[in-house]
Write a structure and sequence with these properties.
Strand content: 5-15%
Strand order of the largest sheet: 1-5-4
Structural class: alpha+beta
Number of strands: 5
Largest sheet: 3 strands, antiparallel
Radius of gyration: 22 Å
Helix content: 55-70%
Shape: elongated
Order of helices and strands: HHEHEEHEE
């Protein structure tokens, strides 16, 4: 084999290694944010499912729905679990009101009529 072929092979291998390592570092750095987004997404889906059957939802009901809620990414041992259900419920409902999915009526929340 030519020396130039070996050198090019080593260089391409080094570049591939750098790219894969960098991608892993970026994924690890963003993992907490991604897990929280996944947790909010699952909570959001549960609230929407509840609102299909009921007209209103309260903070206490959302706190009950958040029980046992966890988020985990594939091929990762880390997971996010809801520890403080009441705090999670308040933050989730605030997020849903802010994004226009829910409207607040006193201490209850209902589907937003804004499309």
């Amino acid at each position: 084999m030519k020396t130039s072929t070996i050198i090019l092979g080593v260089i391409f291998f080094a570049i591939a290694t750098i790219l894969i390592y960098s991608w892993g570092l970026v994924k690890q750095r963003n993992q907490t944010k991604d897990l929280m987004n996944l947790l909010f997404s699952k909570g959001n889906a549960r609230v929407k499912k509840h609102l299909k059957k009921n007209a209103y939802v309260t903070v206490e009901e959302v706190a009950k729905m958040a029980e046992g809620l966890e988020a985990k990414q594939p091929f990762s041992p880390n997971k996010a679990v809801v520890k403080d259900k009441k705090d999670f419920a308040v933050k989730l409902l605030e997020y849903m009101v802010k994004t226009g999915q829910l409207e607040k009526e006193g201490n209850r929340f209902c589907k937003s009529n804004i499309k």
